[in-house]
Design a protein that fits this description.
alpha/beta; 4-stranded mixed beta sheet; globular; 449 residues; single chain; binds zinc ion; binds (4S)-2,6-dioxohexahydropyrimidine-4-carboxylic acid
């Protein structure tokens, strides 16, 4: 067993005791939920499932049992590992931006235990062969986690026309379906994806954007887009499809999860839907909590992202949304692109922000400013995604998986390529000095870094 002493957690100083192996688990009487665990851990190394370390106790002043390693963690903040339900790893096909190995390295060092990888790879993840390729590569490069969950494309080639073979993709390991990256135009297709996915117990996760209103746009529509002479897309383009999805979800009685919400108008719709009891959940990213469209003034291509950064009133709404629980999940929408690709005129560069290396540090900044608490982060980045996406998560209850990390809040570092584990450092925070970084991570009770 290992006893970690004197870490900070939710404003208290605590000790954490964990088991490290099957023998200790048996001694503690921990059960092994075969179905639950097996589904997620079958592909991975021995530090999961039966063998994996589990939480024994988290409280103030634990006395070390016999034969126990004791590690002092004074000055560090304890977190349960994070679950990011929306990343892009570019593998297969665009490995110069990121590959499964570097993506998982960024996740590992960012504090993540599970990541869900969107299907806009090349070729698109629209068949079981690609799913198996992704899982095998993840297992080979990271046998001790973080776990990669390939998200099944909703339509062949993400073209929005024909449904993908979801049955075989579910069998290969997909639990989520999405057309993320390419918004769906046909309401009929959205309906069928929801129905087909629901039959297979797959959650439909939707990128909401009216492609007609967004055509040719490179930023948010408003005064700034007029000043810069760049075509913008209005926030109502997002809200329109959020409304569509909510109405379909309510009509069909099938859950829906809304991707990267960026504006107040979408939140208003989500609030009213939740009040009516619609089974809708939603996510947002650190950049929508910290930046508005002014980040793209001076044509800063690293701030070009889709959905675009909106206005400050939207930032305030998003913050409120996370605090109130209206936004269920925090995500990065980790979208790596190479420096060469971003070093072009604004209208020629791809959308996206590389997020896994900076997410927690940026959220911690919001904690420092009194906008969020550690509790908000734990709820939205571990507990809620764990529940909604049905992956084992650590709530520091007896018997939980020992997935956790320590964060050093005083560590200063500069956001640049050298300090990134991701292959790409396309971020509007490039060059900034930030405070705080993950310093040690345990998955299944095993120290992975
Ligand atoms: O900014 C974005 N980047 N938004 C998306 O929807 C896709 C993503 C990507 O794949 O680069
Ligand atoms: Zn995305």
């Amino acid at each position: 067993m290992i006893l970690f002493k004197n870490a900070a957690y939710l404003g208290k100083t605590v000790d954490l005791l964990i088991t490290e192996n099957a023998e200790e688990n048996t001694k503690m009487g921990f059960s092994f939920a075969e179905d639950d665990f097996h589904k997620h851990y079958q592909n991975y190394g021995s530090n999961y499932g039966k063998q994996g370390g589990r939480i024994v106790e988290l409280k103030e002043n634990i006395t070390a049992p016999e034969n126990c390693t004791v590690i002092d963690m004074a000055g560090k903040v304890l977190f349960p590992s994070l679950i990011d339900v929306h990343v892009h790893f570019r593998d297969p096909g665009m490995e110069w931006k990121e590959d499964i190995n570097t993506g998982l390295e960024a996740a590992l060092h960012g504090g993540y235990s599970h990541v869900f990888c969107m299907a806009n790879t090349s070729p698109v993840n629209d068949n079981a062969g690609i799913v198996r390729y992704m899982l095998e590569k993840a297992r080979n490069t990271h046998p001790h986690g973080p776990f990669l969950h390939p998200v099944a494309a909703a339509t062949l080639g993400l073209k929005g026309e024909a449904l993908t073979p979801l049955g075989e993709m579910a069998e290969a390991g997909c639990t989520v379906v999405s057309n993320d990256g390419v918004p769906l135009t046909s309401t009929e297709i959205v309906r069928r994806v929801m129905e087909y996915g629901s039959d297979l117990d797959m959650l439909f996760v939707d990128h909401c954007e009216d492609p007609f209103l967004a055509r040719g746009a490179h930023m948010n529509e408003g005064k700034l887009s007029a000043k810069l002479g760049v075509k913008g897309q209005p926030d109502i383009g997002e809200a329109l499809q959020v409304g569509r999805d909510i109405m379909l979800s309510e009509y069909l009685q099938i859950p829906v999860h809304i991707c990267h919400v960026s504006c107040r108008k979408s939140l208003d719709l989500i609030r009213r839907a939740k009040e009516r009891g619609v089974d809708v959940t939603a996510e947002t990213c650190p950049h929508y909590l910290l930046l508005d469209e002014n980040a793209i003034d001076n044509y800063n291509t690293n701030a070009k992202v889709n959905p675009p950064l909106r206005v400050w009133d939207d930032v305030l709404a998003m913050r409120e949304g996370v605090k109130s629980g209206l936004i269920d999940c925090l995500i990065t929408d980790h979208a790596p692109h190479s420096a060469q690709e971003k070093e072009n005129p604004l209208d020629m560069v791809p959308n996206g922000i590389s997020g896994l290396d900076t997410a927690l540090t940026l959220l911690w900044k919001l904690v420092g400013e009194g906008v969020l608490t550690q509790e908000d982060i734990v709820r939205a980045y571990t507990v809620n995604p764990g529940k909604r996406f049905k992956v084992p998560y650590n709530s520091f209850a007896k018997g939980d998986v020992a997935d956790f990390f320590f964060f050093d809040p005083s560590f200063e570092w500069v956001v640049n390529k050298e300090n990134f584990h991701s292959k790409s450092a396309n971020t509007p925070f490039l060059g900034q000095t930030l405070k705080g970084r993950v310093c040690t991570h345990y998955l299944g009770g095993k120290k992975v870094f």
